[in-house]
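agent> Task received from the user: take the single chain below, predict its 3D structure, and emit C-alpha cells. No templates, no multimer pairing.
agent> Plan: (1) validate residues, (2) run structure prediction, (3) serialize to C-alpha cells, (4) report one or two observations.
agent> Step 1 OK, no nonstandard residues flagged.
tool_call: predict_structure(input=
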Amino acid sequence: MVTQALAQEAAEMAAEHGEAMGEAHGAFPPFDPSTFLSQLIWLAIFFGLLYILLSRVALPRVATILEERNDRIADDLAEAEKLKRESDEAIAAYEQALAEARAKAHGIAQEARDKAKAEIEAERSKVEADLDAKLAEAEERIGEVKTKALAEVDAIAKETTEAIVTTLSGESPNEAKVGEAVSQARGELR
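)
tool_result: status=success, residues=190
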C-alpha cells in the first residue's frame, strides 16, 4: 500500500514536471540552426580575446623562461667545458711533474749507486793493499822461520844422528863425518 502511494505520487510529479518542460521542448541549443550565427560570433570574440591574452601575456613569459633556460644551459656547458679544460691541463701538469720526479729520483738513485760503488772500490783497494802488506810481512816471517827451522833441522839431525850412532855402537862419532852425512841426506831429499 505504501509503495502504491509512492508510485502514484512519483507519477503526479513527473506529469507536473513534464508540463513545465513542455514549454522549452525543442532541440539542444548548440545544435539549433537558428542560433548558429550568434554562436559563431561569440566563438570568434572569445577566440580573439584568448589569442590576444596568450600572445601578449602567457607566450612572452614562456618564451622568456625558455630563453633563460637555454642561456643557463649554454652557460653551464661553457663552464663545464672550461672546467674540463682546466682539469686536462692539471692532469697534464701532474703527469709532467710526476715524470720529472721519476727522472730526478732515477738520477739520484744512479748517483747514489755510483758513489757507493766508488766508495766500495776505494775500500776494496785499501783492504787489498793492507792484505798485500800483511801477506808480504807473513811471507817474510815464514821465510825467517823456515830458515831458522832449517838451520835448527840440521842441528837436530846432527844431534839425533850422533845419539843413534852412540847408542848403537857405544862410541862417539866424528862430528865432521856426521855433518857431512846429514848434508848429503838433505841434498838427496831436495
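agent> Step 4: summary for the user.
Residues 78 and 84 are 10 Å apart (CA to CA).
agent> Done.
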